[in-house]
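for the recovery benchmark. tokens below, seq after
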């Protein structure tokens, strides 16, 4: 179930109601009156959840799921386990997105409430600059300073002795102590989840959170997206430069250093002590081992083992990259001399 500090539950709904709204067909053996409370991934779903299956790589997850209901194509209907209500559709992920909208709603600021919501908890010694907005249920620890026009969303927890810059927006996030977030950073907005449907591209609701551990620094204009379901996590003492993008479900280890204009795609896992040069790009679902180093502008398309240094586009071990660059340089000189 999504965190109730950030998401309102709209259920329960019956399998029949969800199926009709999502454009799926009920399998003949389905209990149409079965109650569904939430959406969840196959591996996390329980008897009151609805999940989806659309990728054969995760067939074992479908076979073993405990979900109360699942959206699948007709070809995969027989793979669902006994007792799981099968909802047949040619676009399972789009149906899941529609079910998410039916069952969950992100909490927003109460309309008409004062800028500092009376339901928030602000410890003594907190400094709020002009124009700060604090939502219902938010908690801010002593010694923290919030800059002008910053927006702290409902349910957000900020620890002690943090520094939040001007125009920062924070939502769906739990933040530790001694964290610094510089001006115009955006924490906790929806990750970039999109699926195709018969009516065109469809946003997939993002129901996770952002977890920022102690002593993290996040530079001006950087964006850290909340998870699609699992959390986006920034490990303690990691330092992030300006204009960095961290996508949904990313797991960043401790003591990492990320230079400006770097982008980490969704579900990347980064070990401890990894260093990123400026403008590094990481493809989705990759693992970067602890102690690895990535040269500026590296384009990473495969997993990187711990402790290695990679460079180039596509990125490869730096010694190989330097040999290739030296060879190309020699060939260019030879060609130039020959033409002369």
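predicted aa per position
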């Amino acid at each position: 179930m999504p965190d109730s500090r950030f998401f309102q539950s709209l259920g329960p709904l019956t399998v029949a109601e969800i199926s009709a709204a999502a454009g799926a067909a009920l399998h003949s053996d389905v209990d149409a009156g079965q109650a569904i409370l939430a959406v969840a991934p196959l591996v996390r779903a329980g008897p009151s959840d609805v999940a989806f299956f659309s990728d054969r790589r995760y067939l074992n997850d479908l076979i073993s799921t405990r979900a109360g209901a699942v959206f699948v194509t007709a070809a995969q209907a027989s793979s669902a386990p006994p007792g799981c209500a099968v909802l047949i559709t040619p676009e399972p992920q789009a149906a899941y997105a529609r079910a998410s909208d039916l069952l969950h709603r992100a909490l927003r600021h109460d309309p008409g409430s004062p800028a500092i919501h009376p339901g928030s908890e602000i410890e003594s010694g907190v400094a709020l600059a002009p124009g700060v907005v604090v939502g219902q249920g938010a908690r801010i620890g002593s010694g923290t300073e919030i800059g002008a026009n910053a927006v702290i969303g409902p349910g957000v927890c900020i620890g002690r002795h943090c520094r939040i810059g001007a125009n920062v927006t924070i939502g769906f996030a739990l933040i530790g102590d001694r964290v610094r977030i510089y001006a115009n950073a955006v924490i906790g907005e929806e990750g970039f989840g999109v699926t195709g449907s018969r009516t065109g591209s469809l946003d997939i609701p993002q129901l996770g959170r952002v977890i920022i551990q102690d002593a993290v620094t996040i530079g001006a204009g950087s964006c850290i997206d909340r998870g699609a379901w699992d959390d986006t996590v920034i490990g303690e003492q990691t330092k992030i430069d300006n204009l960095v993008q961290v996508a949904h479900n990313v797991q960043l280890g401790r003591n990492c250093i990320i230079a400006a204009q770097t982008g980490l795609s969704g579900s990347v896992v980064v070990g401890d002590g990894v260093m990123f040069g400026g403008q590094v790009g990481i493809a989705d679902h990759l693992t970067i081992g602890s102690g690895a180093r990535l040269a500026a502008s590296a384009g990473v398309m495969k997993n990187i083992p711990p402790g290695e240094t990679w460079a180039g586009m596509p990125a490869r071990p730096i010694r190989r990259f330097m040999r290739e660059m030296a060879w190309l340089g020699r060939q260019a000189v030879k060609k130039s001399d020959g033409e002369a």
